[in-house]
Design brief:
The protein has an 8-stranded antiparallel sheet, with no helix packed on it. Strands 3-2-1-28 form a 4-stranded antiparallel sheet, with no helix packed on it. The chain has a 4-stranded antiparallel sheet with strand order 4-5-6-7, with no helix packed on it. By secondary structure, it is mostly beta strands. The protein is built from no helices and 38 strands. Helices cover 0% and strands 50% of the residues.
Length: 464
């Protein structure tokens, strides 16, 4: 394959076009892709308040109806260089929704291949590239007609694509294979495949000087750095279990990388020297996922997948200074400056339709296992999202809640001793039903095997 070496200096990025480098203002917006409620939540970063939601579909479990027509699993986000168009990628309905940022109205929808994950505009704004993670290609979409025009073959399972600012090269990480594809944008051909340490990479971002591309490895808790001139790996950082997304803040004190680490409910901060050095660990809410910086680097916005909220970090103090409620299970998050040219930008938004979730940590009875359960209310019952780690590989584990004779769910771990999934069941107990409306979470026990619950088989228990 042909070797590409880039010039020492690069032009302004598609991510930075039209940026005024001002503090968060009333015309800027923070967006989250809310996977369970199938909404896009809209936050005013000047006040760190939720303005409302763009409803692209119904919340679970309505999506199971054979007559359902809305979008499913609103997951990925991107935006145009002029900041006038927001992309929302829904991997359950195989769709890319184009949203006008000034009015919050849907302009068009493109339906593409199986399970798209993330997408972004090319540097010139003339094309949208969306990775089709359930297959082996990038879907190229015309943003004026909302139709697919080309397919670019990649390594199976592409996870995300981003472009260097001169528009010549695109970097594509994979969710199923330990490689990065480098694509020549003009020819739409892969010109190099770079081996990396893990097959599961959901996110990538460039350093502010575009000399490096950093990518996360969710399954092994690492971040890989790639030199964008030589197209070689420069190093690998250990970050922690469930390393999700990352973002960079260029501040008066230097340039820093902020990495969301879901297993620690933390954002880890690294100085971007060579090699990078850890400088802070910031506690945040439940299961941090998406993250993006304000244009001036003064704020970092963190989506809490199991907290249904966004934490706001002040990068000068590296402390959380605000929290805004959003939809259910926020995934991707982006900051778009100047998204609303005039007015309050609240048109066509719906109020938040979900209550806050209950998060329960699971502690080991013995051994190194760990896990967590998040319960979201569906009326008389709850949707239980269960995540288990550090258990025996290829083994069945059953989850019980207090007062239930049968398990609410059983899961088989993978080769790394991990399992996750969603079940429907009771998770809350009414306390003093005649005189109080308070509810408390049920106790949770995880046992090895699929038999009846017994104390001697318990491997994980909740701390309630």
């Amino acid at each position: 394959m042909k070797r590409h070496v880039l010039p020492a200096s690069v032009a302004v990025s598609a991510l930075a076009v039209h940026i005024a480098w001002a503090a968060p203002g009333a015309q800027d917006r923070v967006y989250t892709a809310d996977q369970n409620s199938n909404t896009v939540s809209v936050i005013n970063p000047a006040t760190n308040s939720l303005l409302g939601q763009i409803r692209l579909g119904n919340a679970r479990p309505d999506v199971l109806s054979p007559l359902y027509k809305g979008e499913i699993n609103v997951h990925g986000l991107g935006f145009s260089p002029d900041h006038k168009t927001l992309l929302a990628i829904s991997n359950g309905s195989n769709s890319v929704t184009f949203i006008d940022t000034a009015t919050n109205k849907v302009k068009g929808v493109a339906y593409i291949g199986r399970s798209p994950h993330e997408g972004f505009f090319t540097a010139d704004g003339k094309q949208v590239w969306v990775v089709v993670r359930g297959e082996n290609y990038i879907s190229v979409i015309d943003p004026t007609t909302y139709r697919e025009t080309h397919r670019i073959e990649t390594t199976p399972g592409p996870g995300m694509v981003q472009f260097l600012p001169d528009g010549n090269l695109a970097f594509v990480v994979s969710s199923f294979n330990p490689v990065v594809d480098v694509v020549d944008v003009r020819s739409r051909k892969v010109v190099k495949r770079i081996p990396v340490v893990s097959p599961f990479s959901p996110f990538l971002q460039f350093t502010p000087d575009f000399k490096e591309m950093w990518m996360t490895h969710k399954d092994v808790g690492k971040v890989t750095r790639i030199d964008t001139r030589t197209l070689e790996v420069k190093g690998v950082l250990d970050t922690g279990m469930i390393t999700n997304h990352l973002a960079f803040a260029k501040t008066a004190g230097g340039t820093f990388a902020y990495v969301t680490v879901g297993g620690d409910n933390a954002v880890k901060v690294f100085a971007t020297g060579d090699p990078p050095a850890p400088v802070a660990t910031i506690p945040v809410g439940a299961l941090p996922h998406g993250i993006w910086a304000s244009d001036d680097g003064s704020r970092m916005y963190v989506g809490l997948e199991n907290g249904d909220a966004v934490d706001v970090i002040d990068t000068a103090s590296n402390k959380v200074i605000a929290r805004a409620p959003v939809g259910q299970a926020p995934q991707a998050l982006v900051y778009v400056s100047g998204a609303v040219p005039q007015g309050d930008g609240a048109a066509n938004l719906s109020p938040r339709g979900n209550s806050d979730p209950i998060n329960i940590a699971l502690q080991p009875v013995s051994g190194q296992g760990k896990g967590f359960v998040v319960a979201r209310n569906l009326g008389l019952i709850d949707a239980l999202e269960v995540s288990l780690f550090n258990l025996k590989p290829d083994t069945v584990y059953s989850v019980y809640v207090s007062g239930q004779k049968n398990p609410v769910a059983s899961f088989r771990t993978n080769a790394k001793g991990m399992a996750n999934g969603t079940a429907i069941g009771p998770m809350r107990e009414v306390a003093n039903a005649l005189s109080s409306k308070e509810v408390t979470p049920s106790k949770v026990v995880v046992i090895e095997g699929d038999g009846a619950a017994s104390a001697d088989k318990a491997v994980l228990v909740s701390g309630n």
